[in-house]
């Protein structure tokens, strides 16, 4: 069921409902149009709430306080391949990508519900192990869920979160003149996937018993830190809180690639973006960093670099990397002298 | 992908994590064991919270107030067949069964997150219509979700809810001497599915062009009220609130059949149950009512029938039907002179 797509795109986490057509992606007939159709078919939120249209929804909880809600699903053969990751990795990642959506609002996670379709008993044990590890790492309680048979492994997670009384950081409030920051270097996950695929290909050749042929000894084992970035991504909860404290005006997590996710932030805010440089991780290419996705670093806009630096320092975090600036022309998407690529993964409808 | 199971079982909604092995179902190697394994692999809740182990979890929200959380998934070929229902029905039902989990705690729904895997563009439109209708009927805001390609239609819903400051009604607090009530007659959904299947079979025969053979004119169209009970089940939110007001000690929704769901309530509470009679819907058999499932009526235990009657009357609801009593022997499961059947649907692991 792996779609016939370039390797670095085929594994993308599907954008949540929120990630709606930008100027660069409108006119397509697939997922983006479907999300718009869903949004149009449902009631719109009251003032003060954010529903479909951001990393997480911001709603009033039972006592009137602000509650963050997000959901993300991973599907075998679409988002992951059990030849490259084990079920424990799938469990970790399914929770971590949801926590990342909460982090991108300046929040921290509280609870998760986990639905598992099509798992074997052994898979369930491994999934539970990975889920429990992520739940412990992010202090997010797994409080319920559902289990079903089905034709392939599907793990759906829904999370709640809180901003602790602060305003949630939406995508839509960046203003011209705001500086753009990213919480870390990019491209590690895409590079890790490529290395894991190469390694799996080498293994397959060896297993096929082609002993009369020279082994492709030039394919090294996947570097552990790159493989880990793909298999066990880190949600930047502390960084999201620091960005909020430091006056972030808009924020998004880099789930689908810096280009496309910056385009989403810019489109939601009605600003243009001018990027100076892409901070690229060691072992990754510039394209991995720009379009690879699944890095789960946070990109945010803020007015005062000094306040940002102080907030990150106070939280004992490495300083975020300044990558550019928001401008008033809402159509502008540039990296240096080039257009900012905003290609992205769309799920094919059946 | 329809499992090789009796017709009335093959469509059952999978029990959420909460619905753990009872005495009657332990020792199996499938879903029940998997749920226990998941529960064992995760941290346990603090005092005052209920996580895995009930229709919905009861947790502290961001402001400390009580928050209900539940998730349920429906899978094409496991829970529904697109020859018998349309995608709008799937949308309605996916939300309604989650709302029913909130109702079974004495709560009302607040928000829903909806994840859709493997839908066509036309299916998404119909799903959205059904979801929007259920969301309006239950005053439950659909605030986000996720969309992915995949090999079959999977709709996962997570809901939040509130008891409005009242104690949530767990499964586990029934005491010997408590009376048992159900909010309506049972078996309509199972009878509706049987009628829809018979009708679909007749259609298939006609389509096969067997004009030389007599048409099976004895198969009538599915009675609309039975078909509707299967396609568009009603979550008993007002009834759950009335039961809570009337002093319910324990409550569960009838998702898998009166026998198995009463067994779950009794096992969680450590009591036995003695059922006098099964209130059977017109057009349904006793077996439909006892073991058919998907009725989504609520079964509850309460001490004072007068208080129950007054609460339902005050809410302008039809009075609940008294069906039996809780007894001190925790192993007792009887209906009249017979054992209470507690057969149920377990998903096969792959």
Textual characterization of the structure:
2 copies of one chain form a homodimer. In chain A, the strands form 2 sheets. The first copy, chain A, has a 7-stranded mixed beta sheet, sandwiched between helices. Chain A has a 5-stranded mixed beta sheet with strand order 1-2-5-3-4. Chain A is globular, with a radius of gyration of 20 Å. The relative contact order of chain A is 0.17. Residues 1-29 of chain A have low confidence and may be disordered. By secondary structure, chain A is of the alpha+beta class. The longest helix of chain A has 20 residues, at 188-207. Chain A has helices at residues 31-40, 87-103, 121-137, 188-207, 224-231, 237-245, 258-269, 286-292, 305-314; strands at residues 57-60, 66-75, 108-117, 141-148, 154-162, 179-182, 248-253, 272-275, 298-302, 321-327, 333-335, 338-339. In chain A, strand 1 and strand 2 form a beta hairpin. Helices cover 31% and strands 21% of the residues of chain A. Chain A is built from 9 helices and 12 strands. At the A-B interface, helix 1, strand 2, strand 3, helix 3 and strand 4 of A face helix 1, strand 2, strand 3, helix 3 and strand 4 of B.
Q: Give the helix level of chain A as a range of percent.
A: 25-40%
Low-confidence stretches of chain A: 1-29
Count of β-strands of chain A: 12
Average pLDDT metric of chain A:
87
Q: Biggest interface: chains and residue counts?
A: A-B, 83 and 82 residues
Sketch the topology of chain A as an H/E string, one letter per element.
Answer: HEEHEHEEEHHHEHEHEHEEE
**Total helical elements of chain A:** 9
Largest beta-sheet characterization of chain A: 7 strands, mixed
| Strand order within the widest beta sheet of chain A | 7-9-6-10-8-11-12
Shape, per Cα inertia axes of chain A:
globular
From the helix content, strand content and strand pairing of chain A, which structural class follows? alpha+beta
What is the alpha-carbon Rg of chain A in Å?
Answer: 20 Å
Distance between the termini of chain A: 12 Å
What is the percentage of strand-forming residues of chain A? 15-25%
Oligomerization status of the protein chains: homodimer
